[in-house]
Amino acid sequence: MTHPPTGPLFGLRVLDLSRVLAGPWSTQILGDLGADVVKIEQPGHGDDTRRWGPPFLDDGSRDSAYFLCANRNKRSVAIDMADPRGADLIRRLAADSDIVVENFRVGGLVKYGLDYASLSAATPELIYCSITGFGQDGPYRARGGYDFMIQGMSGLMSVTGRPDDEPGGGPMKVGVPITDLTTGLYATVSILAALAHRDRTGIGQHIDMALLDTQVALLANQASSWLNGGVVPVRRGNDHPGLVPYRDYACADGDILVALGNDRQFRAFCTLLGLPDLATDPRFADNAARNAHRAALQSALAPAIATWRADDLLAAMDVAGLPAGRVNTIPDILADPHIDARGLVQPMTRTDGTPVQVLGYPGKFSETPTDYRRAPPRSGEDSGDVLRERLGLDEATLAELIAAGVVAERLG
Protein backbone atom coordinates (compact mmCIF):
# COMPACT_ATOMS: atom_id res chain seq x y z
CA MET A 1 0.00 0.00 0.00
CA THR A 2 1.03 3.59 -0.55
CA HIS A 3 0.08 6.69 1.38
CA PRO A 4 0.74 10.43 1.03
CA PRO A 5 4.30 11.49 1.89
CA THR A 6 4.99 13.30 5.13
CA GLY A 7 8.63 14.29 4.71
CA PRO A 8 10.19 17.76 4.50
CA LEU A 9 10.43 17.63 0.68
CA PHE A 10 6.72 16.96 0.19
CA GLY A 11 5.53 18.72 -2.96
CA LEU A 12 8.81 18.50 -4.86
CA ARG A 13 8.93 16.50 -8.07
CA VAL A 14 12.03 14.57 -9.12
CA LEU A 15 12.64 13.04 -12.54
CA ASP A 16 15.15 10.22 -12.15
CA LEU A 17 17.01 9.38 -15.36
CA SER A 18 19.77 7.54 -13.48
CA ARG A 19 20.69 3.89 -13.24
CA VAL A 20 22.84 1.57 -11.12
CA LEU A 21 23.64 3.17 -7.74
CA ALA A 22 25.01 6.71 -7.29
CA GLY A 23 22.03 8.45 -8.93
CA PRO A 24 19.36 6.06 -7.59
CA TRP A 25 20.84 6.39 -4.08
CA SER A 26 20.46 10.16 -4.28
CA THR A 27 16.90 10.02 -5.63
CA GLN A 28 15.90 7.42 -3.04
CA ILE A 29 17.01 9.84 -0.31
CA LEU A 30 14.92 12.58 -1.92
CA GLY A 31 11.99 10.16 -2.01
CA ASP A 32 12.50 9.22 1.64
CA LEU A 33 12.32 12.92 2.47
CA GLY A 34 8.94 13.22 0.78
CA ALA A 35 9.66 14.11 -2.85
CA ASP A 36 7.61 12.49 -5.64
CA VAL A 37 10.25 10.56 -7.60
CA VAL A 38 9.48 9.26 -11.10
CA LYS A 39 12.10 6.77 -12.31
CA ILE A 40 12.43 6.43 -16.08
CA GLU A 41 13.46 2.96 -17.26
CA GLN A 42 14.10 1.34 -20.61
CA PRO A 43 11.18 -0.81 -21.81
CA GLY A 44 12.00 -4.50 -21.74
CA HIS A 45 15.14 -4.02 -19.67
CA GLY A 46 14.88 -1.52 -16.84
CA ASP A 47 17.64 -0.45 -14.52
CA ASP A 48 20.76 -2.60 -15.01
CA THR A 49 20.80 -3.49 -11.33
CA ARG A 50 17.48 -5.34 -11.59
CA ARG A 51 19.59 -8.23 -12.94
CA TRP A 52 22.60 -7.81 -10.63
CA GLY A 53 22.16 -11.03 -8.70
CA PRO A 54 21.72 -13.50 -7.19
CA PRO A 55 19.95 -13.17 -4.86
CA PHE A 56 16.69 -12.34 -6.63
CA LEU A 57 13.12 -11.94 -5.44
CA ASP A 58 11.10 -15.06 -6.17
CA ASP A 59 8.01 -13.14 -7.23
CA GLY A 60 8.02 -13.34 -11.00
CA SER A 61 9.88 -10.07 -11.43
CA ARG A 62 13.28 -11.63 -10.68
CA ASP A 63 14.41 -8.24 -9.37
CA SER A 64 17.70 -8.40 -7.51
CA ALA A 65 18.34 -7.59 -3.88
CA TYR A 66 20.81 -5.02 -5.21
CA PHE A 67 18.04 -3.12 -7.02
CA LEU A 68 15.81 -3.21 -3.94
CA CYS A 69 18.40 -1.39 -1.81
CA ALA A 70 18.23 1.86 -3.80
CA ASN A 71 14.78 2.27 -5.35
CA ARG A 72 12.04 2.59 -2.75
CA ASN A 73 9.72 5.61 -2.67
CA LYS A 74 9.76 5.87 -6.47
CA ARG A 75 7.31 5.32 -9.31
CA SER A 76 8.64 3.46 -12.34
CA VAL A 77 7.75 4.60 -15.86
CA ALA A 78 9.12 2.65 -18.82
CA ILE A 79 9.69 4.92 -21.84
CA ASP A 80 11.90 4.41 -24.88
CA MET A 81 13.80 7.71 -25.08
CA ALA A 82 15.39 6.64 -28.37
CA ASP A 83 11.97 7.06 -29.99
CA PRO A 84 11.21 10.78 -30.58
CA ARG A 85 7.78 10.29 -29.04
CA GLY A 86 9.37 8.84 -25.92
CA ALA A 87 11.93 11.63 -25.68
CA ASP A 88 9.10 14.14 -25.97
CA LEU A 89 7.23 12.49 -23.09
CA ILE A 90 10.34 12.69 -20.90
CA ARG A 91 10.92 16.35 -21.83
CA ARG A 92 7.34 17.10 -20.79
CA LEU A 93 7.88 15.29 -17.49
CA ALA A 94 11.07 17.30 -16.95
CA ALA A 95 9.19 20.55 -17.55
CA ASP A 96 6.77 19.47 -14.82
CA SER A 97 9.60 18.62 -12.37
CA ASP A 98 11.74 20.54 -9.90
CA ILE A 99 14.79 18.29 -10.14
CA VAL A 100 16.31 16.04 -12.81
CA VAL A 101 19.02 13.53 -11.91
CA GLU A 102 20.91 11.70 -14.67
CA ASN A 103 24.07 9.64 -15.01
CA PHE A 104 24.56 9.30 -18.76
CA ARG A 105 28.00 9.80 -20.27
CA VAL A 106 28.95 13.41 -20.94
CA GLY A 107 26.84 14.70 -23.84
CA GLY A 108 24.81 11.48 -24.01
CA LEU A 109 21.44 13.19 -23.61
CA VAL A 110 21.96 16.03 -26.11
CA LYS A 111 20.55 14.05 -29.04
CA TYR A 112 17.31 13.51 -27.11
CA GLY A 113 16.97 17.14 -26.08
CA LEU A 114 17.29 16.03 -22.47
CA ASP A 115 20.55 17.78 -21.60
CA TYR A 116 20.64 20.69 -19.16
CA ALA A 117 20.92 23.39 -21.83
CA SER A 118 17.85 22.13 -23.67
CA LEU A 119 15.67 21.59 -20.62
CA SER A 120 16.67 24.75 -18.73
CA ALA A 121 15.92 26.91 -21.77
CA ALA A 122 12.27 25.96 -21.32
CA THR A 123 12.35 25.65 -17.53
CA PRO A 124 14.97 28.00 -16.06
CA GLU A 125 14.01 27.10 -12.48
CA LEU A 126 14.99 23.45 -13.07
CA ILE A 127 17.72 21.91 -10.90
CA TYR A 128 19.62 19.38 -12.99
CA CYS A 129 22.22 17.04 -11.45
CA SER A 130 24.61 15.10 -13.69
CA ILE A 131 26.55 12.21 -12.15
CA THR A 132 29.45 10.76 -14.13
CA GLY A 133 32.71 8.99 -13.46
CA PHE A 134 34.96 11.95 -14.11
CA GLY A 135 32.85 15.09 -14.53
CA GLN A 136 31.71 17.29 -17.39
CA ASP A 137 35.21 18.61 -18.18
CA GLY A 138 38.83 17.58 -17.78
CA PRO A 139 40.89 15.07 -19.79
CA TYR A 140 38.96 12.02 -18.50
CA ARG A 141 35.45 13.39 -19.08
CA ALA A 142 34.61 10.93 -21.89
CA ARG A 143 35.49 7.86 -19.84
CA GLY A 144 32.94 5.65 -18.15
CA GLY A 145 33.47 5.14 -14.43
CA TYR A 146 32.52 2.37 -12.02
CA ASP A 147 32.92 2.26 -8.27
CA PHE A 148 35.66 -0.40 -8.21
CA MET A 149 37.93 1.35 -10.68
CA ILE A 150 37.43 4.71 -8.95
CA GLN A 151 38.35 3.19 -5.58
CA GLY A 152 41.66 2.21 -7.15
CA MET A 153 42.30 5.38 -9.17
CA SER A 154 41.45 7.70 -6.29
CA GLY A 155 44.09 6.31 -3.94
CA LEU A 156 41.54 4.73 -1.59
CA MET A 157 42.83 1.22 -2.21
CA SER A 158 46.37 2.34 -1.43
CA VAL A 159 45.27 2.86 2.19
CA THR A 160 42.79 -0.05 2.43
CA GLY A 161 43.89 -3.59 3.28
CA ARG A 162 46.76 -5.25 5.06
CA PRO A 163 50.32 -3.91 4.72
CA ASP A 164 52.27 -5.25 1.78
CA ASP A 165 54.69 -7.16 4.02
CA GLU A 166 51.93 -9.11 5.79
CA PRO A 167 50.16 -12.26 4.55
CA GLY A 168 47.23 -11.16 2.43
CA GLY A 169 48.77 -7.75 1.93
CA GLY A 170 47.92 -5.64 -1.10
CA PRO A 171 45.28 -3.22 -2.33
CA MET A 172 41.73 -3.92 -1.21
CA LYS A 173 38.38 -2.40 -2.09
CA VAL A 174 35.84 -1.44 0.56
CA GLY A 175 33.15 -4.07 1.14
CA VAL A 176 30.31 -1.81 -0.06
CA PRO A 177 30.36 0.42 -3.19
CA ILE A 178 31.46 3.36 -1.08
CA THR A 179 32.24 5.69 -3.99
CA ASP A 180 28.78 5.31 -5.54
CA LEU A 181 27.07 5.71 -2.18
CA THR A 182 28.97 8.81 -1.12
CA THR A 183 28.59 10.40 -4.54
CA GLY A 184 24.85 9.89 -4.12
CA LEU A 185 25.05 11.57 -0.71
CA TYR A 186 27.07 14.52 -2.04
CA ALA A 187 24.63 14.82 -4.95
CA THR A 188 21.73 15.05 -2.50
CA VAL A 189 23.49 17.69 -0.41
CA SER A 190 24.20 19.68 -3.58
CA ILE A 191 20.60 19.41 -4.78
CA LEU A 192 19.31 20.67 -1.43
CA ALA A 193 21.76 23.59 -1.60
CA ALA A 194 20.53 24.39 -5.13
CA LEU A 195 16.95 24.31 -3.85
CA ALA A 196 17.86 26.90 -1.20
CA HIS A 197 19.38 29.10 -3.92
CA ARG A 198 16.27 28.69 -6.07
CA ASP A 199 14.06 29.64 -3.15
CA ARG A 200 15.95 32.96 -2.93
CA THR A 201 16.33 33.70 -6.62
CA GLY A 202 13.83 31.60 -8.58
CA ILE A 203 16.71 30.29 -10.71
CA GLY A 204 17.80 26.67 -11.07
CA GLN A 205 21.27 25.41 -11.97
CA HIS A 206 23.37 22.53 -13.22
CA ILE A 207 25.22 20.35 -10.68
CA ASP A 208 28.24 18.43 -11.98
CA MET A 209 29.05 15.45 -9.73
CA ALA A 210 31.92 13.05 -10.43
CA LEU A 211 32.75 9.76 -8.74
CA LEU A 212 36.49 10.49 -8.83
CA ASP A 213 36.06 13.97 -7.34
CA THR A 214 33.94 12.56 -4.53
CA GLN A 215 36.32 9.78 -3.61
CA VAL A 216 39.36 12.08 -3.68
CA ALA A 217 37.51 14.52 -1.42
CA LEU A 218 36.82 11.63 0.97
CA LEU A 219 40.52 10.90 1.41
CA ALA A 220 40.20 13.47 4.20
CA ASN A 221 42.92 13.00 6.86
CA GLN A 222 44.94 10.69 4.62
CA ALA A 223 45.22 13.31 1.88
CA SER A 224 45.92 16.00 4.46
CA SER A 225 48.85 13.95 5.78
CA TRP A 226 50.44 14.19 2.36
CA LEU A 227 49.41 17.74 1.49
CA ASN A 228 50.40 19.26 4.82
CA GLY A 229 52.92 16.83 6.29
CA GLY A 230 54.62 15.23 3.31
CA VAL A 231 53.70 11.77 4.63
CA VAL A 232 52.67 9.15 2.06
CA PRO A 233 49.79 7.17 3.61
CA VAL A 234 50.08 3.39 3.39
CA ARG A 235 47.94 0.35 4.10
CA ARG A 236 47.84 -0.43 7.81
CA GLY A 237 45.16 -3.10 8.00
CA ASN A 238 42.95 -2.23 10.96
CA ASP A 239 45.49 0.07 12.58
CA HIS A 240 44.64 3.77 12.59
CA PRO A 241 47.25 6.00 10.88
CA GLY A 242 47.31 8.40 13.83
CA LEU A 243 45.62 6.97 16.93
CA VAL A 244 47.14 4.18 19.05
CA PRO A 245 45.65 1.86 20.24
CA TYR A 246 42.86 1.88 17.70
CA ARG A 247 42.46 -1.56 16.12
CA ASP A 248 41.13 -5.10 16.48
CA TYR A 249 42.37 -7.43 19.21
CA ALA A 250 41.90 -11.15 19.76
CA CYS A 251 40.18 -12.17 23.00
CA ALA A 252 40.01 -15.75 24.23
CA ASP A 253 36.78 -16.41 22.29
CA GLY A 254 36.70 -13.85 19.48
CA ASP A 255 37.80 -10.46 18.26
CA ILE A 256 36.86 -7.03 19.55
CA LEU A 257 37.57 -3.49 18.39
CA VAL A 258 39.30 -1.03 20.70
CA ALA A 259 39.07 2.64 19.67
CA LEU A 260 40.80 4.93 22.18
CA GLY A 261 40.81 8.57 21.19
CA ASN A 262 42.89 10.27 23.91
CA ASP A 263 45.50 9.80 26.62
CA ARG A 264 42.96 9.63 29.44
CA GLN A 265 41.21 6.71 27.79
CA PHE A 266 44.53 4.97 27.28
CA ARG A 267 45.45 5.27 30.96
CA ALA A 268 42.04 3.98 32.02
CA PHE A 269 42.38 1.04 29.63
CA CYS A 270 45.79 0.13 31.08
CA THR A 271 44.30 0.20 34.59
CA LEU A 272 41.40 -2.03 33.48
CA LEU A 273 43.84 -4.56 32.00
CA GLY A 274 46.01 -4.56 35.12
CA LEU A 275 48.90 -2.92 33.26
CA PRO A 276 49.41 0.36 35.16
CA ASP A 277 53.09 0.50 34.24
CA LEU A 278 52.20 0.93 30.56
CA ALA A 279 50.35 4.14 31.38
CA THR A 280 53.45 5.69 32.94
CA ASP A 281 55.99 4.32 30.45
CA PRO A 282 57.54 7.33 28.62
CA ARG A 283 57.26 5.43 25.33
CA PHE A 284 53.47 5.49 25.68
CA ALA A 285 52.90 8.72 27.61
CA ASP A 286 50.96 10.44 24.82
CA ASN A 287 49.57 9.58 21.42
CA ALA A 288 52.62 10.83 19.52
CA ALA A 289 54.87 8.61 21.63
CA ARG A 290 52.56 5.64 21.19
CA ASN A 291 52.69 6.18 17.44
CA ALA A 292 56.47 6.07 17.52
CA HIS A 293 56.43 2.86 19.57
CA ARG A 294 53.23 1.24 18.36
CA ALA A 295 54.80 -2.20 17.77
CA ALA A 296 56.09 -2.38 21.34
CA LEU A 297 52.72 -1.27 22.71
CA GLN A 298 50.80 -3.83 20.67
CA SER A 299 53.16 -6.56 21.93
CA ALA A 300 52.37 -5.55 25.50
CA LEU A 301 48.60 -5.17 25.07
CA ALA A 302 47.80 -8.21 22.95
CA PRO A 303 48.69 -10.95 25.50
CA ALA A 304 46.73 -9.21 28.27
CA ILE A 305 43.65 -8.76 26.06
CA ALA A 306 43.85 -12.39 24.90
CA THR A 307 43.16 -13.62 28.46
CA TRP A 308 39.70 -12.00 28.51
CA ARG A 309 36.44 -13.35 27.15
CA ALA A 310 35.13 -10.84 24.61
CA ASP A 311 31.81 -10.21 26.37
CA ASP A 312 33.53 -9.68 29.71
CA LEU A 313 36.03 -7.18 28.34
CA LEU A 314 33.37 -5.30 26.39
CA ALA A 315 31.21 -5.07 29.50
CA ALA A 316 34.13 -3.84 31.61
CA MET A 317 35.04 -1.24 29.00
CA ASP A 318 31.43 -0.08 28.82
CA VAL A 319 31.37 0.48 32.58
CA ALA A 320 34.65 2.40 32.30
CA GLY A 321 33.30 4.55 29.47
CA LEU A 322 35.83 3.21 26.96
CA PRO A 323 34.76 2.78 23.32
CA ALA A 324 34.85 -0.80 22.07
CA GLY A 325 32.68 -3.14 20.04
CA ARG A 326 32.26 -6.46 18.30
CA VAL A 327 33.16 -7.30 14.73
CA ASN A 328 29.60 -8.20 13.73
CA THR A 329 28.40 -10.05 10.70
CA ILE A 330 25.61 -8.35 8.76
CA PRO A 331 23.02 -10.78 10.18
CA ASP A 332 24.38 -10.00 13.67
CA ILE A 333 23.96 -6.23 13.38
CA LEU A 334 20.58 -6.40 11.64
CA ALA A 335 19.29 -8.53 14.54
CA ASP A 336 20.76 -6.20 17.17
CA PRO A 337 18.11 -4.80 19.54
CA HIS A 338 19.54 -1.29 19.20
CA ILE A 339 19.07 -1.38 15.41
CA ASP A 340 15.52 -2.59 15.99
CA ALA A 341 14.86 0.23 18.44
CA ARG A 342 16.16 2.76 15.93
CA GLY A 343 13.88 1.41 13.17
CA LEU A 344 16.66 0.82 10.65
CA VAL A 345 15.05 -2.27 9.10
CA GLN A 346 11.71 -1.45 7.49
CA PRO A 347 9.23 -4.02 6.13
CA MET A 348 7.47 -3.07 2.91
CA THR A 349 5.07 -4.75 0.49
CA ARG A 350 5.19 -4.48 -3.30
CA THR A 351 1.98 -3.85 -5.22
CA ASP A 352 1.61 -7.58 -5.98
CA GLY A 353 1.80 -8.42 -2.26
CA THR A 354 5.45 -9.52 -2.24
CA PRO A 355 7.14 -8.58 1.06
CA VAL A 356 10.55 -6.90 0.96
CA GLN A 357 12.73 -5.43 3.67
CA VAL A 358 14.81 -2.28 3.28
CA LEU A 359 17.26 -0.31 5.37
CA GLY A 360 15.64 2.94 6.45
CA TYR A 361 16.81 6.53 6.28
CA PRO A 362 19.07 7.13 9.32
CA GLY A 363 18.03 10.69 10.16
CA LYS A 364 15.22 11.31 12.63
CA PHE A 365 13.04 14.41 12.05
CA SER A 366 10.97 15.70 14.95
CA GLU A 367 8.38 17.47 12.76
CA THR A 368 8.56 15.92 9.28
CA PRO A 369 9.49 12.25 9.64
CA THR A 370 10.62 10.19 6.70
CA ASP A 371 8.28 7.47 5.52
CA TYR A 372 8.27 4.25 3.54
CA ARG A 373 5.22 4.58 1.35
CA ARG A 374 6.32 2.83 -1.84
CA ALA A 375 8.23 -0.42 -2.04
CA PRO A 376 10.81 -0.67 -4.86
CA PRO A 377 8.61 -0.86 -7.98
CA ARG A 378 8.46 -3.35 -10.80
CA SER A 379 9.74 -1.88 -14.05
CA GLY A 380 7.09 0.25 -15.70
CA GLU A 381 4.35 -0.50 -13.16
CA ASP A 382 3.43 3.17 -12.81
CA SER A 383 3.69 4.18 -16.48
CA GLY A 384 -0.03 4.67 -17.08
CA ASP A 385 -0.74 6.37 -13.77
CA VAL A 386 2.09 8.90 -14.10
CA LEU A 387 1.44 9.75 -17.74
CA ARG A 388 -2.26 10.28 -17.10
CA GLU A 389 -1.70 12.29 -13.94
CA ARG A 390 1.28 14.41 -14.95
CA LEU A 391 0.81 14.82 -18.70
CA GLY A 392 -2.94 14.34 -19.07
CA LEU A 393 -2.60 11.52 -21.62
CA ASP A 394 -5.93 10.02 -22.62
CA GLU A 395 -6.51 6.28 -22.86
CA ALA A 396 -6.37 6.16 -26.65
CA THR A 397 -3.02 7.96 -26.81
CA LEU A 398 -1.58 5.82 -24.03
CA ALA A 399 -2.76 2.62 -25.72
CA GLU A 400 -1.18 3.76 -29.00
CA LEU A 401 2.17 4.44 -27.30
CA ILE A 402 2.09 1.06 -25.57
CA ALA A 403 1.25 -0.73 -28.81
CA ALA A 404 4.15 1.02 -30.53
CA GLY A 405 6.59 -0.01 -27.76
CA VAL A 406 7.29 3.60 -26.78
CA VAL A 407 5.79 3.02 -23.32
CA ALA A 408 5.61 -0.23 -21.37
CA GLU A 409 3.59 -1.19 -18.32
CA ARG A 410 4.34 -3.72 -15.54
CA LEU A 411 7.24 -5.52 -17.17
CA GLY A 412 8.98 -8.49 -15.55
Automatic annotation (TrEMBL):
Domain of life per record: Bacteria
Q: Which Gene3D superfamilies match?
A: Crotonobetainyl-coa:carnitine coa-transferase, domain 1, formyl-coa transferase, domain 3
| Any Pfam family hit | CoA_transf_3
Could you tell me the keywords of this UniProt record?
Transferase
Q: Where is this region: Disordered?
A: 362-385
DNA damage: is it a keyword of this entry?
no
Q: Which molecular function terms from Gene Ontology are attached?
A: transferase activity
Composition bias type Basic and acidic residues, residue spans:
370-385
Name of the featured protein: CaiB/BaiF CoA transferase family protein
Which organism's genome codes for this protein?
Sphingomonas arantia
Q: List the top taxonomic levels of the source.
A: Bacteria, Pseudomonadati, Pseudomonadota, Alphaproteobacteria, Sphingomonadales
